[in-house]
């Protein structure tokens, strides 16, 4: 096993990690965005 860092391997590894994590990030961002969306809708309908 060599310790040489190959850019393609690094990109592939980052891609795998991102694929594993992005649903969690999407859910987290969705939960964070809900109050903002509700507030925006309320202010839009209040006019």
In helices, the fraction of residues equals over 70%
**Beta-strand proportion:** under 5%
The overall strand count is: 0
Major sheet attributes? none
Q: What's the overall average pLDDT, rounded?
A: 89
Element pattern in H and E: H
Uncertain segments: none
Shape: rod-shaped
DSSP helical segment count: 1
Distance between the termini: 66 Å
Structural class, from secondary structure content? mainly alpha
The Cα radius of gyration reads: 20 Å
Model description:
- The chain has 1 helix and no strands.
- The chain is mainly α and 47 residues long.
- The longest helix is centred in the middle third of the chain and has 40 residues, at 7-46.
- The chain has a domain at 20-46.
List keywords for this structure.
47 residues, mainly alpha, 1 helix
Task: Describe the secondary-structure layout.
Blueprint: H1 7-46
